[in-house]
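Hi support team,

I'm opening this ticket because the web form for multi-chain structure prediction keeps timing out on my end. I have pasted the exact lines I submitted so you can reproduce it. The total is 224 residues across two entries, so I didn't expect it to be a heavy job. Is there a limit I'm missing, or should I split the entries? Thanks in advance, R.K.
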Amino acid sequence: GQQVMQIPQYQHVQEGEDFTTYCNSSTTLSNIQWYKQRPGGHPVFLIQLVKSGEVKKQKRLTFQFGEAKKNSSLHITATQTTDVGTYFCAGRSSASKIIFGSGTRLSIRP
Amino acid sequence: GAVVSQHPSRVICKSGTSVKIECRSLDFQATTMFWYRQFPKKSLMLMATSNEGSKATYEQGVEKDKFLINHASLTLSTLTVTSAHPEDSSFYICSADSPGAGYTFGSGTRLTVV
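Hello R.K., no limit was hit. The queue was backed up. Here is the completed structure from your submission:
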C-alpha cells in the first residue's frame, strides 16, 4: 500500500539555525500538504502543493514539491523558539486517501 | 477560517463502558469527516472515513463494532468507543476537508480508560 516516509524523526537545533524535513512517497501524489502540531495541540494546516516542482514560501518557511510528485521538503530559515513542534507531511494519492508521514519533531535550544 | 469543534477534550471512563466523541464543522458543511488515532509522539493513524448519510469506511485492522461512527448531518460526525478497555486509551482526533484550507482538525479528545 501507499507509504509516506518522513525524515528525520527528530531534529534539535540552536535557535537561528536552519531546519529541513523531507517527505518521500512510495507512489505519485496528486498533492501534498504540510501540517504543524505544537506539543499538546492538534495539527494545523500550513500549505498545500499541487504542481510538479512547485515552490511556495511563507515568511521563513519554504515548501517544495518534487518534479516527480513523490517527494517534498519543508525548510525553515533561522529557526525561532516559536517553530517548536512536530511537522507532518500528508500525501494525497489518486485514490483521494491522505496518508500522513511519521512527522519530524523539532526542538530548539534558545 | 474553517473551524472544527470536537468534544469532549478529555474523558476518563471505566473499563467496559462506552464513550461518544463529537466532531462538528462550525462554518462549513462536511460530507466527509475523518477519524484518527494518535499515540504519544507518533503520527496520525487514519481509523475511518465518515460519510454523511451512509456507512463509514474503516481502515484495515480497525474494528467496526468497537469504533462506531455516525454521520447523521452535514456538520456532525460521532465516534463511539464501545466496551472500552485500557488499550483503547489514546488521543482521538477528527478532521474535515475544508474548502481551500486543507484538512481542518478538531482539538482532539484524550481518552483514558481505567
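A quick check on our side: The longest strand of chain A covers residues 85-92. Let us know if the file doesn't open in your viewer.
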